[in-house]
Amino acid sequence: MRSAEEKAKSRNAVLEKLDQMSILYEMVEHPAAYTVEDMDRIGFDEKVTVCKNLFVRDQKKKPSHWLVVVHKDKRADLDSLAEQLGTKHLSFASADRLKRYLGLAQGEVTPLGVLNDVNHEVTVVFDRDIIGNMHLGVHPNDNTATLILSFDDILKVVEQNGNPVRYITVPGEKE
User: Fold this and answer.
1) Could you tell me the end-to-end alpha-carbon distance of the chain, in angstroms, rounded to an integer?
2) 28, 75, 78: which is closest to 52 by C-alpha?
């Protein structure tokens, strides 16, 4: 778990980057939200699509890491994800790996975490269902706030940072 000071510094770095890129966003501050259920209790406007973010890895000797972004109500089956990503045996990355690659703690995972990935080692994987969404809710590297911004703007941040991007179809309906 990161200190309030670490979270604030990380959040401010994200906000500065968005401002530098002239990206518009709305920020909602709230109690720490570690899970999708915590996010549901916040009560966002119905136009906001809260994202579920999964940091996963494969089991190779030199593992690959993916940050998977899907609608909060979709079930992301790791076997199906592995097949679409062309790998086998996906598992959730450890807290140590999350800290090392994205500078985040559990419960803080967000596509904006790639701003801490200076070596561009994490591939960001978006579910096709969120493409074009104008009101996605993601943490600003701090789970005591949520930024509401467009898919295109999130993609712009990821691409400008130099991280690879992939698209998948998460099967099934939203839960």
Assistant:
1) 29
2) 75
Q: 175: Cβ–Cβ under 8 A, 6 or more apart, which residues?
A: 73, 74, 75
Going from N- to C-terminal start, the domains of the chain cover 4-168
Residues in the chain: 175
Q: Look up the pTM and report it.
A: 0.93
Which tens digit of pLDDT belongs to each residue from 10-25? 999 999 999 999 999 9
- Give the chain as a 3 state SS string: CCCHHHHHHHHHHHHHHHHHCCCCCEEEECCCCCCHHHHHHHCCCCCCEEEEEEEEECCCCCCCEEEEEEECCCCCCHHHHHHHHCCCCCEECCHHHHHHHHCCCCCCCCHHHHHHCCCCCEEEEEEHHHCCCCCEEECCCCCCEEEEECHHHHHHHHHHHCCCEEEECCCCCCC
Q: Domain spanning 4-168: which superfamily?
A: YbaK/aminoacyl-tRNA synthetase-associated domain (3.90.960.10)
Model confidence pLDDT, tens digit, residues 53-108: 999 999 887 889 999 999 998 988 899 999 999 998 899 999 999 999 999 999 99
